[in-house]
Design brief:
Layout (H helix, E strand, L loop, with lengths): L32 H18 L8 H16 L2 H10 L10 H20 L2 H19 L3 H9 L3 H7 L2
Helix pairs in contact: 1-2, 1-4, 1-5, 2-4
């Protein structure tokens, strides 16, 4: 899909915090990395609930496959255009390959954390990440899903500042 391997700026940064920037979704970590960690929490919870015994051995590979499929879909013209019209990501042009691979890595970190932390701690982290990103960038996983599925003009206006 002609995604650039790295940011077209020519560098790879560990962190970029500017949301309304051409650097967003181009580097190793950004504010949306927290959403991908939560994806890992959710995939682990689903595997723990639905898979039993040796089937759980396949949970992480399945989660990586599903997250990778989402990264491909997220960078397709249909989703890029949906982000542009329905969310605060007005200038969104898709992720770099480094960012997409990092997003899968962040999901894996979330899956690993959820496999080792008590459920209450994992839930508290997810809520904390959602509230933190809501307060700091006016966006989070919950709003992202809501705005992709059922855009609300008032939320879009609020997110735009």
């Amino acid at each position: 899909m002609h995604r650039p391997p790295i940011c077209t700026c020519g560098t790879i940064k560990l962190w970029t915090g500017a949301v309304q920037s051409s650097d967003n979704s181009q580097h190793i970590a950004d504010w949306y990395s927290f959403s991908h960690v939560i994806h890992g929490f959710l995939f682990y919870a689903a595997a723990h609930y639905w898979l039993k015994g040796r089937a759980r051995d396949w949970a992480l590979p399945v989660a990586v496959t599903v997250e990778s499929a989402w990264e491909i879909l997220e960078n397709s013209p249909i989703i890029i255009n949906r982000y542009r019209e329905a969310t605060m990501a007005l200038g969104y042009s898709g992720d770099s390959i480094v960012n997409s691979l990092s997003d899968v890595g962040w999901m894996s970190v979330g899956f690993w954390l959820a496999s080792r932390l008590p459920a209450k701690v994992t839930i508290a982290l997810a809520i904390g990440f959602e509230l933190m990103t809501l307060a700091l960038i006016r966006d989070n996983l919950t709003l992202n899903i809501l705005m992709l599925a059922w855009p609300i003009d008032a939320i879009k206006a609020w997110q735009g500042g």
